[in-house]
Design goal:
heterodimer; A: mainly beta; 4-stranded antiparallel sheet; 11 strands; 0% helix; 50% strand; B: mainly beta; globular
């Protein structure tokens, strides 16, 4: 059974930084593309960033480009999201999600973590 | 590509046939997935590539469509199905979610 477990969320002031982690188990982690998806409280879902299985290719939503960095350590089965210059509109639950395919960008997301809440406020 | 869903809220009873529509602002072929989300939980994949049922998902769920218009059908609504449903377009490393449809108890 695939399990994804996020951590690192919390309260941070505007302009601050935070690093999220997502540890995977029960899966050949390096085989799959991974993404971060966020959900504003009471609102819908927004894809934030994605990374290929090897880590060679990364992709970002326009709303976070230049401020967030996605990375992975396949030796530790761990996905990261470094978030800098945080704004109030970044407040959300952040999920890591696994692509269902072992090639390309992975397609749809067949496994999700439980989410970690990031609150940006003074 | 912008994704829209209708209706935004749907009130239904157990046993009802439920249809949710998702539209894309341009053709997306069949690169569409459907997710179910319950309060406080992560989304769960139901359908991928417009009409393929994810493993373990009950057969009362089905998806259809291609191009710009897609539907998710629940053939006979069960108590466990009251939730919010999202469509998602995926193409390479581009992902776009619809705004969601909440199915609540009539």
């Amino acid at each position: 059974e695939v399990q994804l477990s996020e951590s690192g969320g919390g309260l941070v002031q505007p302009g601050g930084s935070l690093r999220l982690s997502c540890v995977a188990s029960g899966v050949s982690f390096a085989t799959y593309a991974m993404s971060w998806v966020r959900q504003t409280p009471g609102k819908g879902l927004e894809w934030v960033a994605g990374i290929s299985g090897s880590g060679d290719n990364t992709y970002y939503a326009d709303s976070v480009k230049g401020r967030f960095t996605i990375s992975r350590d396949n030796s530790k089965d761990t996905l990261y999201l470094q978030m800098n210059s945080l704004r109030g509109e970044d407040t959300a639950v952040y999920y890591c999600a696994k692509g269902r395919l072992t090639w390309g960008s992975g397609g749809a997301f067949d496994d999700w973590g439980q989410g970690t809440l990031v609150t940006v406020s003074s | 590509t912008q994704m829209t869903q209708s209706p935004s809220t749907l009130s239904a009873s157990v046993g009802d046939r439920v249809i949710i529509t998702c539209r894309a602002s341009e053709s997306i072929d069949s690169w569409l997935a459907w997710y179910q989300q319950k309060p406080g939980k992560a989304p769960q994949l139901l359908i991928y590539q417009a009409s393929n049922l994810e493993s373990g998902v009950p057969s009362r769920f089905s998806g259809s469509g291609s191009g710009t218009e897609f539907t998710l059908t629940i053939s006979s609504l069960q108590p466990d199905d009251f939730a919010t449903y999202y469509c998602q377009h995926y193409n390479g490393m581009f992902f776009s979610f619809g705004p969601g449809t909440t199915v609540d108890i009539k």
